[in-house]
Amino acid sequence: MATGTIISLGLYFLAMLGIGFFAYRQTDTSVEGYMLGGRQLGPAVTALSAGASDMSGWMLMGLPGAMYVAGISAGWIAVGLIMGALANYYLVAPRLRVYTEVANNSITLPDYFENRFADDSRLLRVIASVVIVIFFTLYTSSGVVAGGKLFETSFNLSYEVGLYVTAGVVVAYTLVGGFMAVSMTDFVQGCIMFVSLVMVPFVVIAELGGPGQAIDAIQAIDPALFNPFKNASSGQSLSVIGIVSLMAWGLGYFGQPHIIVRFMAIRSVNDLPSARRIGMSWMVVSIIGALATGLFGMAYVTAQPGVSIDPETVFIYLSQILFHPLIGGFLLAAILAAIMSTISSQLLVTSSSLTSDFYQAFLRKDATQGELVIAGRISVVVVALTAIFLAYDRNSTILNLVSNAWAGFGAAFGPLVLFSLFRRGMTRRAALGGMIVGAVTVLLWIYLPVTIGGQSLSNWMYEIVPGFVLSSLTIVILSKSGSPRDGVTETFDRFRQTLLGASTKP
C-alpha cells in the first residue's frame, strides 16, 4: 500500500480516538451522560450524527453495488429512504424528544415504552430489549463484514484481521466516550462521507469524457440500466409490488433505535427545524452520489480490459485507481467512517438496552451511576465480540444483512412509536401485541420455506411491508378492546401541552 494512503488512514484513526478521549473529558459520569450525552446535542451534530449512523457501509458499498448490478431501478430504495427520513423528522422527532422526557426521563426506547404505557409487568421493556439485541446483532455484523471486505480488498490483509481492526477502533472510542463520542465522531465521519460522495462520481464522470459520453457508455452496455422499471441484472420488469417493496425501506425509519435516539438527545425541540434542513440536505446529496458512483463506476470498470470486481467494492476500486494515494486514503477513510459511525451507534444502543433494561431493571435495581456506566462499557465489548463471530460468515452480503435488520426494527417498533406519539387511547396490550406481531412477521417472512411464483416470500415482497401492516392492525384492534392504565392518558395530555409550549417558544 502507498505511503500516502497509510498516512491518511493513520491520521483518521488517531482523530477518532482523540475525539473519543475529548468526549470522555466532557461527559458527566451519570448513565444519562454516557447513554444520551445529557440531552445536549446541537442541531448540526444531531443531523449528521443521525445521518452517518443511518447510512452505514451500505451507503458506500451496498447501495453502489445494487446500482452497479441492477441500474437505476435500484434508485427506488433511495426515493423511499428520503421520504421516510423526512417524515421521521416531522412526525417522530419533536414528539419523541418531549415525550421521553415527560415519561419519567426515559433514556432508551424500551424504557420509554414501559413508562409510556405504565407497564409494571416489565414485559414491554424485556421484549423490546430482546428485539434490539437480536436485530442489532445482525445489523452490527453487516458493518463488521463491510470492514472485513475493505481491509481484504484494499490492504491485502486477511478478512478476519479486517473484522478485528474495524471493531477494535470503534469499541475503543465508544467504550471511553459513550454517546457524546459516538455523536461527535459521527459528525466528522458524516462530513468525510459527504465530500467523498461528491468527489468520486465527479471524477469518474470526468474520466469517462463528461456527462454525455458517460451516459452513452452506459447505454452501450445495456439500455435497461437507465430503465427505472426494469432490473438490468435479471432482465425482468419491476412489478408494482417490487417498487413498493423497494420504497418501503422508508417505513423503517420510524423504528430504528440508533437513529431516533438522536432525537431524544437534542438539546431543544426548537433546534429540530435546523437539524432537519441540515440532515435532509446531507442525505439527498450523499445518496445521489452513492447511486452515481455505482452506475458510472460500472461503466468505467467495464471499459477496463480484464478487470472484474465485486460490485460492492466499486467505491474502493475507484478510490485506488483514480486518485493520488493521499486522497485515496482519505476516500478509504470515508468507507471506514460510514462503517464505524453505524457500528458505534448500534453498539451503544444495544449496550444501553442491556444495561438499563436488563442489568438495572432485573439484577441491580440500586446500582450506582458509576456501576451502570461500567456495565454499559462491558456490554459494548460483549456485543462487539458477538458481531465479529457472526461476521465470520463472509458469504453474507452487506445489503441483505442490513435489509433484514432494518425490516425487523421498522415492523416491530415503527408502528408502536407512531401510535404511541399520536394515539391517546393506545393500550399496553396493543403495544405489546403490535411489537410481537411485527417482529415475528418479519422473521417468518424471511425464513418460512414458502414461495410465490417461484420466489421466496422475502424476494417477492420486502418483509417490512407485511410486518408494518400487521403490526399496525394489531395495535388498532387491541386498543379498541381495552382502556389505558391509570395515569397514562394524563401523562399523554401533559406531553401534548409541553409539546405545544415548546413549539410556540421563540
Topology:
Layout: H1 3-26, H2 31-36, H3 43-54, H4 57-70, H5 75-91, H6 93-102, H7 109-116, H8 123-155, H9 159-207, H10 211-221, H11 240-247, H12 257-265, H13 272-302, H14 314-321, H15 325-363, H16 369-391, H17 398-422, H18 428-447, E1 451-452, E2 455-456, H19 457-460, H20 464-479, H21 488-503
Antiparallel strand pairs: 1-2
Helix pairs in contact: 1-9, 1-15, 3-9, 3-12, 3-13, 3-15, 4-13, 4-15, 5-11, 5-13, 6-12, 6-21, 7-8, 8-9, 8-15, 8-16, 8-17, 8-18, 9-13, 9-15, 9-16, 10-13, 12-15, 14-15, 15-16, 17-18, 17-20, 18-20
Identify the notable features of this structure and list them briefly.
506 residues; mainly alpha; Sodium/glucose cotransporter; two-stranded antiparallel ribbon; globular
Corresponding CATH superfamily = Sodium/glucose cotransporter
Mean pLDDT: 80
Please mark out the parts with pLDDT under 50 across 5 or more consecutive residues, or reply none.
none
Oligomer: single chain
Give me the count of strands: 2
Structural category is mainly alpha
Helix share of residues? over 70%
Please, how many domains? 1
CATH architecture: Up-down Bundle
Strand order in space, largest sheet = 1-2
The largest sheet is: 2 strands, antiparallel
Number of helices: 21
Q: What's the level 1 CATH class?
A: Mainly Alpha
Over the alpha carbons, how many angstroms does the gyration radius reach?
A: 22 Å
Membrane topology: Multi-pass membrane protein
Pfam family, one: SSF
Catalytic activity: L-proline(in) + Na(+)(in) = L-proline(out) + Na(+)(out)
Function: Catalyzes the sodium-dependent uptake of extracellular L-proline.
